[in-house]
């Protein structure tokens, strides 16, 4: 049976511990005494002669004797911490763009928003990672002579695909499936002919930069499989964060638009979180009306999500300007660039996720918390 008091359990695989939050309608406990039973594989709540129980997902087993810190927080409900009998299975390894694109295979590029074909059947002989965005600045530090690459540009040939942190570069050739609108002397916005969504920028006469949040790449022999927009944006941004934090040991990021403005500051906390939540409850899902596609776990009264936990600060309308300026000048902060419209979408997704959390879990050291970022 579904539980009258909805619950949220945040599990950390690394520490084999969990925080359990049991909430009730209007954030008020029933008038009758409440008895909460924590079993190895289930939760049970008794109140006023009624009994509600929920089985935990397979692989999640608690150590009931380790329960501690039971307390009631107004507006939240009951909080308690518990150890795990054994950690749940590890999350699937993030499937990155670098792994999905292979040389000598045919691919079709689709507009993520509408499914229109952007690049028809294309086979790459080389799929190569680009150096960091500021690589030319570092060359000046390495070389005692004038920069030997000063007049060189890293532009792909027709059979090349170059991968950056948040984009990939393709030789445009005779592609005509996109529209272009002049924006400045240097760059031209590239948009989808059908839905007019910005896909990237033309960086030279024969090179187009496509952002990973705007294009779906699939093998030519397959068929187009649409992915809900908010789910896709979350997935691609999470991939970028995890890949860069692993490769460069950096955990702070600025999300910038193609207009050069900073929209969000992100601090990556961990990627080993598993969320377990009772479904059909009103305390969380009502906040996701616009983005219901995010919350589609396995069927049943209890859902599970692998999550990347972050702290974030919005920077629109001059908010947090001093902090943003400090991060801008910090070598330990990595900038990620996306279309400005996508930055605003991401900020809305983050805000909706934050409001779904119990009030006491929404902020940490003045930053807002985002749990379901995967």
Secondary structure: elements and pairs:
Blueprint: E1 7-12, E2 17-22, E3 34-38, E4 42-47, E5 50-55, E6 61-73, E7 77-86, H1 97-100, E8 106-111, E9 117-123, E10 126-129, H2 135-142, E11 160-163, E12 167-171, E13 178-182, E14 188-192, E15 198-204, E16 207-211, E17 215-219, H3 229-248, E18 252-257, E19 262-278, H4 282-285, E20 302-314, H5 321-328, E21 333-338, H6 340-356, E22 363-364, E23 367-370
Parallel strand pairs: 10-11, 18-21
Antiparallel strand pairs: 1-2, 1-19, 2-7, 3-4, 4-5, 6-7, 8-9, 8-17, 11-12, 12-16, 13-14, 14-15, 15-16, 18-19, 19-20, 20-23, 22-23
Please tag this protein with its features.
single chain; 374 residues; alpha+beta; Metal Binding Protein, Guanine Nucleotide Exchange Factor, Chain A; ten-stranded mixed beta sheet; seven-stranded mixed beta sheet; 16% helix; EC 2.3.2.26; ligase; UBQ-conj_enz_E2-bd_prot
| Count of β-strands | 23
SS-derived structural category: alpha+beta
Element pattern in H and E: EEEEEEEHEEEHEEEEEEEHEEHEHEHEE
SS element count, helices: 6
- Let me know the largest β-sheet: 10 strands, mixed
Q: Kindly state the percentage of residues in helix.
A: 10-25%
Q: Give the amount of beta strand, in percent.
A: 35-45%
Radius of gyration: 24 Å
For the record, the CATH class of the domain at 97-219 is: Mainly Beta
Q: Which topology of the domain at 97-219 does CATH recognise?
A: Metal Binding Protein, Guanine Nucleotide Exchange Factor, Chain A
The CATH homologous superfamily of the domain at 97-219: Metal Binding Protein, Guanine Nucleotide Exchange Factor, Chain A
pLDDT < 50 stretches: 280-299
